[in-house]
Amino acid sequence: MEEQGLAGEYGIRELCAEDAAPVLAAYLRNREHLAPYEPDRGDGYLTLEGQRAAVAERLDGIRAGQAASWVLTHGDDVVGRVNLSTIVRGIFRSASVGYWVDRDHVGRGLATAAVGYVCGAALDLGLHRLQAGTYPDNVGSQTVLLRNGFTLIGPAPAYLFIAGEWRDHLLYQRVLHDRPPVG
Questions:
Q1: At 77, which CATH number?
Q2: Which residues does UniProt assign to the signal peptide (predicted)?
Q3: Quick one: which H or E segment has residue 20?
Q4: 181 is a domain residue
Q5: Per residue in 97-142, pLDDT tens?
């Protein structure tokens, strides 16, 4: 896969089947860091077979036009992910954005650069609007979204089942353009 420069010595490239092992290594390094933000996926998720299955499922979604996924890299290491999920076509032309950055690489502008990159990729995919949610106290993630032109929609009580409970979120959106849908 072709890698693009992202921020300093960081890169971004599309997720591929060979990423199962480096993504697993990143999840294992960041298990505690990501735990408050991740759904319970069971013990098998954090195994090589679990990541091969998760990556294969994501690649199936990409081929079906329902998702897009990238890995953030630092040398040979995966240090984050950014995803477009729930891609809807037709008159809606929308997707949800999700992302995370390795605990040892937070605060370097990587998430801001990755979300900016994905906003451009969403335009290339013909999307009109992106949505993202954050915990109400996740000021860092809210700052990433605001720096990328997202605006607050408002609170979404009990929005997602994360870390064993229904969690409130603040929803943000970015309208990418005002052109009519093509195709």
A1: 3.40.630.30
A2: none
A3: helix 20-29
A4: no
A5: 999 999 999 999 999 999 999 999 999 999 999 999 999 999 999 9
